[in-house]
Specification:
By secondary structure, the protein is mainly alpha-helical. It has 2 domains: 62 residues, no CATH class; 181 residues, no CATH class. It contains 9 helices and no strands. Helix 6 packs antiparallel against helix 7, helix 6 crosses helix 8 and helix 8 runs antiparallel to helix 9. The longest helix has 32 residues. Keywords: Hydrolase, Membrane, Transmembrane, Transmembrane helix. One of its GO terms (cellular component) is endoplasmic reticulum membrane. One of its GO terms (molecular function) is dolichyldiphosphatase activity. InterPro entries: PAP2/HPO.
């Protein structure tokens, strides 16, 4: 009598979880006819669900679409975002005013140029220029009190506007920068072009005071003229008699250096108290 071979069926976790049949009801069948189990069915369902969720996230992030359509939509969305950003930046500059921003920064630009020339020269005449800038500012305050001319109606500032202190300071710095370039390079084509650019830059910054309604044309022109003339006189006095006294007299050197140091300190305090407050 032949014994029937025992077929062992070892249950797995998935078969226990998903199979509706009891363990003792499992029957041996051929492998090639074995149907798809419910574990495989649920596994494929889970994979399909995961894939669908991924597609939904991708569609929500990039505006939908599959394959090349999704990539094209994504690229179009990014290009539109860049264009919109540039348009907003340009419209912001035009609405808020590029000239208004440059006008607010003009005092910082002039101070930076003046400081750069001082550090580049680092000589006795540079010290004299520091003193000249302070005297020029004091002269502007005195002239404003003498003329006591109101600013344009569009401005909210109540202090007098004649002459323009910005124009006066700008053109004092312009003359100093041009003279420094000529002393450095001599009189040639390059120095003339560079001097013309410096003059044009200073003129533009001065004109911004008119375009922003802070001064009238006459106030700006008067400030520029006073700054230009005073700067010429100040540096002429250096070459005429101050330089000789500075070299020959120790007391003159001490006085000039101490006065220049005090001027720098006073200017720093003024910037902290007023310029940063305005910003």
């Amino acid at each position: 009598m032949m014994s029937t071979p025992a077929i062992l069926h070892k249950p797995t976790f998935k078969s226990l979880l998903f199979s509706p049949f009891k363990l003792n009801q499992a029957k041996p069948i051929s492998f090639h006819r074995f149907p798809a189990s419910k574990s495989d069915f649920f596994s494929s369902k889970n994979k399909a669900l995961s894939k669908n969720m991924t597609e939904l996230v991708r569609m929500s992030a990039f505006g939908g679409g599959n394959g090349s359509d999704s990539e094209e939509s994504t690229g179009l969305f990014q290009r539109e975002a860049v264009i919109d950003g540039l348009n907003e930046f340009q419209s912001g500059l035009l609405a808020d005013g590029l000239e208004a921003s440059l006008n607010r920064l003009s005092k910082w630009l002039v101070a930076a140029v003046f400081g750069a020339v001082i550090l580049w020269r680092h000589d006795a005449e540079a010290i004299w220029a520091v003193l000249g800038s302070v005297v020029n500012s004091i002269l502007s305050v005195i002239l404003k009190r003498i003329f006591n001319q109101e600013r344009p109606d569009s401005t909210l500032r109540s202090d007098p506007g004649m002459p323009s202190s910005h124009g006066q300071s700008i053109f004092f710095t312009v003359v100093f920068a041009i003279l420094s370039v000529v002393e450095w390079l001599g009189v040639n084509g390059f120095s003339l072009i560079l001097g013309a650019l410096i003059l044009a830059f200073g003129t533009y910054l001065t004109w911004l005071r008119v375009s922003q309604g802070l001064h009238t044309i006459s106030q700006v022109a008067a400030g520029a003229a006073v700054g230009f003339i005073f700067s010429i006189f100040w540096f002429w006095s250096w070459d005429a008699f101050v330089l000789k006294a500075f070299i020959s007299s120790l007391s003159v050197r001490i006085i000039v250096i101490i006065a220049a140091a005090a001027s720098c300190l006073g200017f720093l305090v003024y910037v902290i108290r007023y310029w940063f407050r305005d910003e």
